[in-house]
Amino acid sequence: MGFLNDIEPLKQTALTELKAAPDLAALEQTKGAWIGPNGKFTALMKQLGTLSKEEKPAAGKLINAAKVELEAALASRREELELKAALPKEPTDFTLPGRRRALGKLHPLTQVTDDIVRAFRKIGFAVADGPEIEDEYHCFDALNTPADHPARDSQDTFYLNTTDKRLLRTHTSSVQIRVMEKQAPPVRIIVPGRVYRRDNADATHNPTFHQIEGLYVDKNVTVGDLKGTVEFVFRELMGSDVKIRFRPHYFSYTEPSYEIDFTNALVKKMGKDWLEIAGCGMVHPQVFETVGYDPEVWTGWAFGFGIERIAMLRYGINDIRLFYENDVRFLKQF
Ligand code: DAH
């Protein structure tokens, strides 16, 4: 019978149309046109009855196989289109702010860091960043810290098990060097970041904590600028009753160097007159030489202080370890 030769080309056309259906409605229509009650393929099947006894089995087999194939193509296209229909019509921009605030709160250390950064931004400081895994050069040598300095001792520093003596940075001062290596003066940066020391954990020490480093390089920079800046930032953070005091100290990368003491009503309430809060000083000419800044032209100051220290003071927390335990009963209070 002639129609046997029609099966294959009809099936091919039907398959092509099913696969090309652009959406679910079009697919249903295509289905109707081929294998619905009045479909072209259904009509073909109806003709089976007109075949002779000898022809029927082979023809029936052929038609059934073709029908199974069409139904499979229909199901798979339907699945594809259903998936497509479930997707958003427009691409999603995951950087857009949410309509609701995310669940939970920012960690108190994050909140304090954000506040410090905000205060420095008001007076033109940019945030810089550097690696926590450092080399001895950036952490010590370039900061004018000699090889026999006790801070370099493996007692104080976490050294990595590498042949090139890499270490976990003991302070954010290493980022001063990294920034000056890359950038010509003037420089006005702060560096919030994590640091590591082999301190045994007790109420006021932890093997990892956070610092903020500051570096200001320009022409004719003075200690007065440094003191004014520190005063401004601490008043922003802790209120207008803050007083600052500089005490002479020693750091290898600054000359002169100072420790910064701080006081306000909170400190007095703790029964203390002053609290030591930071180290600072005028950038040592040797440090400028090392990074290729001309010390005859450029002047600058730097400071570094502990973020936990400030957070503990601000919130009246007396055990530093509370910050890292992530006990919800603690975190909920901020
Ligand atoms: N790096 C010092 C520390 O970890 C803090 C410090 C002191 C940073 C003096 C400075 C500085 O930039 O000038 O204790």
Description:
The chain is an alpha+beta fold and 334 residues long. It has two domains: 2-86; 108-331, BirA Bifunctional Protein, domain 2 (2-Layer Sandwich), CATH 3.30.930.10. It contains 13 helices and nine strands. The strands form two sheets. A seven-stranded mixed beta sheet has the order 1-4-5-9-8-7-6, with helices on both faces. Helix 1 (4-20) runs antiparallel to helix 2. It is elongated. The model has no long low-confidence stretch (mean pLDDT 91). The protein binds 3,4-dihydroxyphenylalanine. 3,4-dihydroxyphenylalanine (DAH) is lined by residues 171, 173, 213, 251, 253-254, 279-281, 302-304.
SSE diagram, text form:
Layout: H1 4-20, H2 24-35, H3 40-46, H4 56-86, H5 108-122, E1 126-127, E2 133-134, H6 136-139, E3 167-168, H7 173-182, E4 187-196, E5 208-218, H8 223-238, E6 243-251, E7 254-263, H9 265-269, E8 275-283, H10 285-291, E9 299-306, H11 307-315, H12 322-325, H13 328-331
Parallel strand pairs: 1-4
Antiparallel strand pairs: 2-3, 4-5, 5-9, 6-7, 7-8, 8-9
Bound molecules: 3,4-dihydroxyphenylalanine.
3,4-dihydroxyphenylalanine (DAH) is lined by residues 171, 173, 213, 251, 253-254, 279-281, 302-304.
